Amino acid sequence: MICLTLSGPTIEDNLLDLEANKDFVDICELRLDLLNPEEQAKASTFPSLVNIPVILTLRRVSDGGKCNLQEKARRSLLMETLKGGGFSYVDIEDDVKKSDVEECAHSLGVKVIRSFHDFEGIPADIFSKVHSLSSRGDVAKIAVTPHSIADIMTLFRVNEELKDTPKIIIGMGQWGVCTRILYKKMGSILTFGSNGVAVAPGMVSARDLKLLYRADRINDNTGIYGIVGNPVMHSLSPLIHNPGFHRINYNAVYVPFLSDSIRSFLTLAEMLRLRGFSVTVPFKVDVVRFLGNITREVKQIGSCNTVVRVPNMWKGTNTDFYGFLNPIEKEIEDGRITSALVLGAGGAAKAIVWALKMRSVKVTILNRTVSKAEDMAKLYGVAYDSMDNIKNYEGKVDLVVQATSLGLYPNEDVNPAEDFEFSGKEVAYDIVYAPKYTKFLRAAEKAGCTLKFGIDMLMEQGKLQFESFTGYHYPKNLDPLS
User: Fold this and answer.
1) Surface-to-core class of residue 265, CB atoms within 10 Å of its CB (0-12 exposed, 13-18 middle, 19+ buried)
2) Which of 6, 79, 105, 288 is deepest in the core (most CB within 10 A)?
């Protein structure tokens, strides 16, 4: 089930939210603690106003809620609300010892969710904690805060240890987004979605859970794909691949995975039996050494952005090369671009420099750390310089490529070429795609330059990734990023 957490201050607000999301959810959670005090008295009638099951929750401040009543008054409000009838579940925290709310719930046929929240980390005894919660309620719920891939693997192992236990396992924050989408792989009976305004850290909208990820349709035969990076939640790649999967009726889901190391992620990938994944900063170079098979492009570029499972190993390819070239092919062919300045010396820059070199474009690499630019320049037989000398190239190149992650969240207000004055004749290309108009591109546009957008590169390389993942061409007439 997908559960909509209702966070409005009034009953009417919550009814409107539920109506707007009715096609995306199977159950809803009424947050009594988020209602205005005068509205709490009306909450007992809420189940009679809706046609889906309702979970009643009165969350304390210490557990991430807004209720600051004394505990006796809080339990009294919960029971009075339950007596209105019609609720399917009531959420009772782990440390509530007295059984008056439970007795009231069971006398009314309401199932008890016993919940535990940890906004700092994951308890060392998580398996016994879930077991204990289950022994004291009908459903065990644990919402914890992972900080690493190792933590995420621990959460997925809960289902291995307690497979037949009715439970809800949630990883909060950005690290836990994958657990909210892959809730069925966690053995959870439901996942919580928002109306677009997250009540808890890392909450995904109910609309995206239903329409983008089709989280409620994931089964044992669903192929799992994803994107690994740090940061990664800004990625638009799920908006490319999931609609593509849906259009060709391919039973698969594409999920963002925040990671602290590529080695750890590959362990998780084996646990979840991922069929393939995209690689973004900062892992495009590091991932290569873990691959059993690589294409000619990866070998020559030294960077990989696409990994697929083949018998007994992972195979790496690089679609950045083709994705980058596609938007500027015409300018290269007609001779408008014969020289280029590439800013940055990371994994993406490697593919870009190699692509331009293959098209006989004269390239100069600029980087803050000159040694990195020098190493790359020697590898590809191109020129290099310090970013501090960028002004020396004003009016002397046809193409300026911003190939760093600067300008990307959380550095949207950074332009690595701040001191560079465009003449207006250059083609300015920023591989950052969110936002579309970076500070770098705005400066180029002001000077009259032709602009090339990272989102176009993303779409082109994504289509090639899709083919690697599925064996099918990306659906025609599908433009998910428009």
Assistant:
1) buried
2) 6
